[in-house]
Amino acid sequence: MNLFASFDHSSIYVAFMNQELIRAIFRGVWERRGAEREKNQLSETEAEAGPSTTKRSRLTSVNANALKLSCELLRVFVTEAIQRAATIAEAEGSLKIEATHLERILPQLLLDF
Asked: In whole angstroms, how large is the CA radius of gyration of the chain?
């Protein structure tokens, strides 16, 4: 029995083709990094006696085509991770993909992408 063949691929497709979800994830990361950057700039400004030279906060946005490409890249990455982990699980005689299978394929997967 092929674990990858029995996996419901539509759930991956739906999750990563939901562009609003991916946009929200990106926005959350950008907001967190922006807050950290502002915090670091404030601490540097307090350390200096001179006038404040902080950059004006600006919103980061993503181009529609870049968002589509990001969604597709994430979908392919996750699909490939599942397929490789399923191959390892099958080789061990397991009927389930476990975290250890993902841990074993992750280094090479990251190098390949």
From this structure: 21
Give the DSSP H or E segment for 7. Answer: none
CB-based contact 15:71 (threshold 8 Å): no
pLDDT in tens, 34-69: 888 888 887 766 555 455 444 555 677 889 999 999
Q: Can you give the pTM of this predicted structure? A: 0.68
In this structure, how many other beta carbons lie within 10 angstroms of the beta carbon of residue 97? 21
DSSP state of 5: H
Q: Is 76 left (phi over 0), alpha (psi -120 to 50) or beta?
A: alpha
Among residues 39, 42, 66, the alpha carbon closest in space to that of 52 is found at: 42
Nearest to 69 by CA among 14, 16, 12: 16
